[in-house]
Write a structure and sequence with these properties.
- It is built from three helices and four strands.
- By secondary structure, the chain is an alpha/beta fold.
- It has one domain (6-100).
- The strands form two sheets. A two-stranded parallel ribbon has the order 1-3. Strands 2-4 form a two-stranded parallel sheet.
- The radius of gyration is 15 Å and the shape is globular.
């Protein structure tokens, strides 16, 4: 829970259908397998509050916006196209993570 979800390549042979997945980190093997099947992997930074809002949206009347990566090292990781970072050229223009909506949403389940 602390760092989000890491997608690893172990057991990748079991994946048989294309998926689109948003994770905190992904191994090169996992990215390769998902993309071979026509799917998509995007690695997205979530601070503690945004991760909690994604996991338990019923606890929030207004869903918070996600923060940007805090350190230069983390920012470089999410700007890396090979790691499918959401800030990488070619990815950031066409993909906006769910938690980075520009308008705040009111949770209708309350």
């Amino acid at each position: 829970f602390k760092d989000g979800v890491s997608l690893l390549g172990r057991g990748s042979g079991y994946l048989q259908v294309p998926i689109t997945i948003e994770v905190t980190r992904a191994s090169k093997e996992a990215i390769k397998r998902v993309e071979e099947l026509g799917g998509r992997v995007v690695c997205v930074y979530h601070n503690k509050l945004a991760l909690r809002a994604l996991l338990k949206p019923e606890k929030f009347a207004i869903l918070p916006k996600s923060a940007m990566p805090m350190t230069a090292k983390m920012r470089r990781m999410y700007e890396d196209k090979e790691r499918r970072g959401f800030l990488a050229e070619g990815i950031k223009e066409e993909y906006v993570p769910v938690s980075f909506n520009f308008e705040r949403r009111v949770n209708e389940a309350v």
